[in-house]
Amino acid sequence: MSAQLPLPHIPGVDAAGIVDDIGDGVDGVTVGDHVFGVVDLAKLGGASAQFAVLQLWAHKPATMPWEQAGAAGTSTETATRALDLLDPQPGTTLLIDGAAGGVGSIAVQLAAARGIRVIGTARTDNHDFLRQLGATPVTYGPGLPDRLNALGVPRVDRALDVAGAGSLTDLLQLTGDPAAVVTLADFTAPTHGVRLSMGQLAGEPDGRHGLSTAAELFTVGRFTVPIEAAFPIQKATDAHETAERGSRRGKIVMTVDDAPDL
Ligand SMILES: NC(=O)c1ccc[n+]([C@@H]2O[C@H](COP(=O)([O-])OP(=O)(O)OC[C@H]3O[C@@H](n4cnc5c(N)ncnc54)[C@H](OP(=O)(O)O)[C@@H]3O)[C@@H](O)[C@H]2O)c1
Hints:
Blueprint: E1 14-18, E2 34-39, H1 41-44, E3 54-59, H2 66-86, E4 93-97, H3 102-113, E5 117-122, H4 127-133, E6 135-139, H5 144-150, E7 158-161, H6 168-175, E8 181-183, H7 189-192, E9 195-196, H8 209-219, E10 227-232, H9 236-244, E11 251-255
Bound molecules: NADP nicotinamide-adenine-dinucleotide phosphate (NAP).
């Protein structure tokens, strides 16, 4: 379960489970396979349920916990899409603003796996967490270019804003090029000449290939989906209340023990 679009009270859009039925024209999957992915919320309903219809999916590695698989879809698609748009090359430097969050923590790992040097912003409490994920941490907020300069990084090649906290002017200063910046959450982007990526909502190509990449990276110990807490679906209220509290580190997941025969 995750609520990541800028809409109020949106139900979960991520799910993992065992394939029960397969739609027309879908191939590469068999009834009984273990999969994870993203539902099409507008057409096919949410994911906080015993059954969900996945629009984007990949096979779940046998060793990947269901909780992680069930929380991976949207953050992985989004991070992959943003990285594809920025296209940072191996050996170059990418700054991720909001790197410890749901999308940011996935973007750090996928970028590091592409051979990119990642600098991620987070509150001080999350700096060790970012190091574990593969990023050099720096504290977010006003004065970011000065703090990066003090780290010996006066400029970065690309910047991804996941937080939408008003950093675009700083990110432009650090990259020197609006085309080198993408935001996922700052709706003032057009006034800065910066791209706001909204994925399928804006008719953009999605980052669905990132799901299988994430699965492959998981099997070699180079990918994890941070989980804050898991609740049985009967405790959905507790799950939502936990999600609404700030200062989380990881996803809130709802689990379903068993699904009835239809
Ligand atoms: N456009 C799209 O396609 C798309 C898709 C998915 C999500 N989103 C949007 O992306 C945003 C992030 O989603 P998420 O799931 O990653 O949220 P999240 O898990 O709540 O993470 C947000 C992160 O922002 C960081 N943060 C807080 N204040 C900050 C500041 N002043 N400067 C920089 N970072 C700050 C926090 O870091 P600390 O924990 O270290 O304080 C937190 O980890 C949301 O607005 C969401 O709606 C957009």
